[in-house]
Every structure is written in structure tokens, then in C-alpha cells.
Amino acid sequence: MGATAAMIVTCLAPSEATADANCEATLKQVDGALNSYKSLDLHYTMVTQEPGKTATTMKLRTRFKATKTKKKQFTELLAPGDLKGTKVLSKSPTKMWIYLPSFRKVRKVDSHTSDQSFLGTAFSAADMNLTRYSPEYGCTKSGSTLNLTARAGAAVAYGRIVMTIDGKMLPTSFKYFDKGGSHVKSETRKEYLCDGKVCTARTMKMINHAKGGLWSELTLTKHKINPTISKKLFSKRNLR
Predict the structure, then answer these.
(1) DSSP-derived secondary structure letter, 6
(2) In a designed cystine with 176, which of 23, 82, 185, 239 is the match (CB 3.0 to 4.6 A)?
(3) What pLDDT shows up at residue 2?
(4) Closest CA to 34 of 172, 141, 231
């Protein structure tokens, strides 16, 4: 049997179809585990290390408000002084704005630049907003490992993601591949803090292999689960 014919038979096999369906159901559970809150108020310290340079430290506060299908996010830089007051508003993965105090202007983050470095860190704006996977990715499953492949036409930064999950359906590691198939980033998440069904990782570390091993680690320093947050916070006017 030729290679092409073998691939077709494999894709049509009932066991594979069942595995795909099971994986998609699991991925929806992961989405549910990551988005089970109504609101969050999180403070982080982020250390970034670029090879051959002195490590830098930022402090930031991120607030979230979510429904079953949508999430709004407002991030403000608290330190260092030259970045203090920088704010980022996200209403969806393709609707983001940033306010830079040095320019005193609100600028839209174009979707084609959202995968670029966020203020020199290993994270991108897209990374910081990616919390729902099932709408944009199909998947296959092997044990606790989910192999996600971008759906046709999906506006995503990564063509493929390999995700490892724990027994609570929470991600513990990721491997990110660009649309050309290159392994460009790796991420680990550790020490989830849980209040009922709402869980938040204490540490998240991203390594950018495409930039020589540049890494950034977010450490949670303070958190509030389901606090009252005004809708007015998530407005472009509030960025100023």
C-alpha cells in the first residue's frame, strides 16, 4: 500500500475518529478549567533573561472579566519606572490596544504583530491572551498529551501546539510551533492555586527558542478570585 493510501486509511479508521472526538471533548474541558472564573485580579513579577545580558524585572497587574465564551483583559505595568503606566486592553485575540506613556497615545495592536515580543519579553500579546483553544484548534490525544493543530482559516500565531495536562485538566507544559513547523517556544506552568474550580498557576515560564533561549518567568504575588470589577475598566478611554 502506498504512503498516501495508508494515510487515508488511517484517517478513516474508527479508532482514530473516536480518539479525535475524545480529544476535542478534553480540550473543551481544558478551556472550562482555565476560564471558570467570573473575574480575576492578579499581580505578577516578571523576570526576563536575554542570553549575555543582565536580567530585567517588571511588575504588573492584570484584571480579567469573563463569560462562557468571551474574556476581557486589562494589564497595567507598575514597574520599572520607564514602563510604569503602560496599559494593554484586550477584548478578544484580535481586538487589542496599548497605551504607552512616553507617546501619550492609544494604539491598536494589529493582529499580524500580536505574536511579536511584548515589551522585550519572551511572551507576546497573543501568548498573554490565549486561554481558549477549542474554537481555533482541532486535536489528537495520547495519554495526557494533546496535539493541537490550527483549524483551516484560524487567525492564530501558532500552527501547532503540544500541550500536557494534569488530572484537573490544567496545562502543565506547552510546545509551540510556527506555521512552518518550527518549534519556536516552550512554556511550563507550575503550582496551581485553586479556590473551588478556579485555578491559577503560581509560576509561568516561557522560553523563546527563536531568540536564542530568551526566557521570561511570571510569578504570582497577589490574587483575588471573582472580585467586583467595573465594566468601565475595560474601555479604550480608561487606557489614558
Answers:
(1) H
(2) 185
(3) 53
(4) 172
Q: Which three cell numbers stand for residue 122?
A: 519572551
Checking if the pLDDT of 3 tops 60, the result is: no
Is the pLDDT confidence value at 5 over 50?
no
Between CA 90 and CA 172 the distance in angstroms is 24
Query: Strand 95-100 relative to strand 145-150: parallel, antiparallel, unpaired?
Result: unpaired
**Where are the extended beta strands (E) located within the chain?**
39-49, 56-66, 71-79, 87-92, 95-100, 105-109, 137-142, 145-150, 160-165, 171-177, 183-195, 198-208, 214-225
Which sequence spans correspond to the domains of the chain?
Answer: 20-239
Measuring CA to CA, which residue among 119, 117, 130 is closest to residue 207? 117
* Cα–Cα distance measured from residue 233 to residue 2, given in angstroms and rounded to the nearest whole number: 59
Indicate the pTM of the whole model: 0.85
Q: How far apart are CA 185 and CA 171, in angstroms?
A: 15
Q: Which of 94, 93, 95, 75 is nearest to 85 (CA)?
A: 75
At 216, give phi and psi (nearest 5°). Answer: -135, 140
Contact assessment for residue 75 and residue 98, using Cβ atoms and an 8 Å cutoff: no
Instruction: Tell me phi and psi for residue 120, to 5 degrees.
Output: 80, 10
Give per-residue pLDDT as tens, 32-53.
999 999 999 999 999 999 999 9
Residue 9 has phi, psi (to 5 degrees) of -60, -45
- CB proximity list for 175: less than 8 A, separation 6 or greater: 161, 162, 183, 185, 186
Q: Collapsing DSSP states into helix, strand and coil, what is residue 151?
A: coil
